[in-house]
Fold:
Amino acid sequence: MKDVTGQGRTILFVSHSLSTVNSLCDSCMLLENGRVTQIGPTESVTASYLASSEETAGSLLDLTEEPPGDSSCCMLGARLVDRAGESPSYASIDHELCLEMTYEVLEVLASPVIPNFHFFIGGQCAFIMGPRQPSPVSTGRHVATVWVPAGLFNEGTYSVNFAATSMAPQCVHFHVQDSFCFQVIEDLHDEARHGYVHQVPGAVRPQLNWNLE
Structure:
């Protein structure tokens, strides 16, 4: 398709894959319920698309008005964070990213509260993660932060469920689902792809050490 556009032809490309759109298209048209809402440079239009999709489920979640949870622990919010402390609307496959969840312990429990994040893509669970060391048992506001290394996530849209549990006895204090998502994008013409410009299957794309002899 890149070769065809270079021959002076016009290509109409319709897709939800922002990586492909950003790589192939010079200008974009954004449609909502069959109506044109924006026409302009690709980066500007795709940014608007991401912003509009976050109205129902995005990478910034504020639950302080009605925090979900029980009488022992509740969730206050979550966000995607970069090294500058900003909350980007999407992540690059070549950069590390941070997920941050804020919660409040309302009463001292017999065992520590364990925050855990559940990552999904395409309706399938990619993996579930939690800290090796549980959080303190003290009451008050706590922040659970995890840094994900560059190259772990594949290109695509991920949703995250947030939960907090304690053991002995086992109790799920809250489990917030279908309220948080973020897009991972990549440059399809990056040298590391060796000219391959199609979607790479899989939930993750870890950068492993290779030895070729």
User: Anything to note?
Assistant: The chain has two domains: 2-53, 60-185.
